[in-house]
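User: We ran a pulldown and think these components assemble together. Before we commit to crystallization trials, I'd like a predicted model of the whole complex to look at. Sequences follow.
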Amino acid sequence: MAAWLVRRLVAALAILWTVATLTFVAIHVAPGDPFLPSAERPVDPAVVATLHRRFGLDRPLPEQYARYLAAVATGDLGVSFSQRRPVAAAIRDALPHTLLLAAAALLLDYVIGIAIGLVQAATAGRRLDEALTVVTLMIASLPAFWVALVLLLVFGGWLHWLPVAGAYDPALYDALPFAGRIADRLRHLALPAATLGILGAAATARYQRAALLEALGQEYVRTARAKGLDERRVLLRHAWRNALVPITALVGLALPFLLTGAVLVETVFAWPGMGRLAADAITLRDYPLVTGTAVTACAVVVLGSLVADLLLQAADPRVRVHG
Amino acid sequence: MKSFAMPQTSQAGRAIRVIPFALALALALAAGCRPADACRGEGCGTLVIAALGEPATLLPPVTDQQLARDVHDQLFLKLADVGMSANTVGDSDFEPQLARRWEWEDSLTLVFDLNPAARWQDGRPVTAGDVAFTFAAYTDSQVGSPARPALTRIAGVTARDSLTAVFRFSQTYPEMFYTAVHHLRILPEHLLRDVPRDRWSTAAFGRTPVGNGPYRLVSWTPGVALTLAADTGFFLGRPHIARLVWRFQPDLAAAVNLVVAGEADAIEILVTPDNVQRARAAPHLRLYEYPGLAYGYLGFNLRANGDPSRPHPLFGDRDVRRALTMAVDRERMRASALGDLAKVPPGPIVTLWPLWEPRPRELPFDTAAAARLLTERGWVDRNGDGVREKAGMPLAFGIMLPSTSGLRRQYARLLQEQLAAVGAKVAIDEVDGPVHGERAAAGRFDAYLGGWNVDPTPSTGIGGTWTSAAVGLANHVRYANPAFDDLIARATTGAGSPDSVRALWQRALEVFNDDAPAIVLFAMDNVAAVHARVADVRIRPDSHWALVRTWRIPADRMIERDRVAPAAN
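Assistant: Here's a predicted model for the assembly, 892 residues in total across the polymer chains.
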């Protein structure tokens, strides 16, 4: 187990280095100068040169890369060009918002997805199962930004039930009592979490259905039925427990989806998380912020994957690593 | 039935008895979700502004970002400010700010008498030393202020005593006073003198500024919002609205959503007819029209794409530019893209400037004349593919535009369609903002769709963008005509009657129109949307939120967020 863990950690470091390097190269090779934000805001070439010197962009790219890696190794992600403050501070502000959104989305994803999967397994081959298959397939095929815009239009624009942007109401939040703050957070969380949750649930439902149908064909289920247990108990007590194991493995796979999906969803809902931070950083050619958000997101995914593997091993002795 | 009915009655009775408890719980929860009503009556109120972006820093000399300027208007006063007339000539229409009065000692010396009540928000007095320090900072190349080129005719600023600042000019011209006051937001010397000038762009002061204006910074949550609170001790009178909150939403449509949904109270410009229609349909909003300071154009690169040492193979020929200009129906494009929100200007001017009448001579919309001129210059469609050629080179070029601008995309398509009618093939080249900036600065484009948001005066608005002195800065198309430069210099610096100055501007615009370095497509008229509960709304055309401290939210119209107490002063 210890050797496996060491191997995973070494692999994680290699992945982080690869992502840091690829992101660094990609953003530096991309056209555009971070200190010439647009044709409408011309900057004196002397000022641009000063800023390049100030941020080390006047040095050869390999030297910039070496300095960058050395700094990252000590936990220094640099200073954001656009926010004029340490990248670590920008990430520290944004990451909790993304983690909250991802957690809420994951909860919705699993609750709705598993429930639909159960219904489909219980009605396998019937009209309801077929209808749900079509619906989940359709939803899984929808682009995240489109779902986000539709929800925004219906619940924010037409019905005015939910706020259209942000993680909280900045004009009210600080004055609210504790319960009010939670309510405000939940209201703002509803639409972005629903967007990611619904899309994830469609895929989870399909996995859950397949896992349940496989479990329902196993010997121990037949034994349970032979003992005279009713179908509901067979499904929930015997088949479902075992069918949950492969679903646990999906947590690790869901994280990249949630983080990449969040780029679009956070942009649509002005959610101040890592996705919007990264999107803005790319648009503004904010090199340190682009690489910083990429490395952090990668670290979260790698860590999430590791946790998911550990959970899977705890849940299923068959995949447990020995020695 | 009876025995069956009894339990029902009993259940109903229990349910009825539960109702008051449920209602009490619901009320308690509802109360728990509402903010404490901490602020009541006059002097309360919150104005939430939907902000199309976020400032990088709030240190005035290092940025000319529009949103930063909006916030600076509330934090850092000038010595005097432009009045509602937006007249920048002379000093009669300016309003005192940090200076309570001023006088001309001679034609080159301007003396400001500071208001002794003016204070920094840390309690220190504003002094003439701060004024001299501010001028030194703005003109220091290490700070790299975008305003620096506009200050070159001020020879120096000194402090005669703690409340007397003296400006010495190197020459006389009609807008000397405007130059002295408009670009300089006075800075606190005692807080900035020890910050190395080459570090100002990242100075901590820029995120925790201490100003001298009607509002002070309370919080700035990156990516979310920036909140200012009224300074109750402000020496020119306490602002009526207690809090200003800028909610960051860089996307225009999403920002309009915030205002229409009531989550924000104001947006300074709606830009498109569609947005105006949406805002007009919202019963809680009032719309305010005011003259604009922005215009859009298609600029022709006069030098070769990526090689400024050679003329552009197409646009180096003045007649080709003129022909393409005549091929474009600007009125039809304006009607299609902007409706009544814009006018077609007779040159690179905005609706605020008084240069529209008498209307300068322009090239007409005349596709026949355009086609004839192209043919005369040797551009003929010999192979019948709809595109003219000359010496084997097609009349084809790209139009660069920023991918974030829907309006410019729409204009690009309209131009593509109209220019195709005279045998010119146009490719649309959408790029990110920094690519747009980099390629424009380096001259790596054929033509580009640009827009300028300019000063309230054509002196810097035209002089700083289209003269040869601006090549390498804002004059991306590298237009250089000594006759044009001379007319601009005389209009800007020469003495004379208003009519003679206006005639100089008119002739300059006609030279520009004859040379056609750009097709000026539209000049915006602005429409702002503000929540109807806000009273006394006045918008100064050159700076939309400059007068917000005089706006009010009457006590009987206040909503939940108005009653939130600002952080203690």
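The domain at 80-192 of chain B is CATH 3.90.76.10 (Dipeptide-binding Protein; domain 1). That may be worth checking against your pulldown data before setting up trials.

User: Thanks, that helps.
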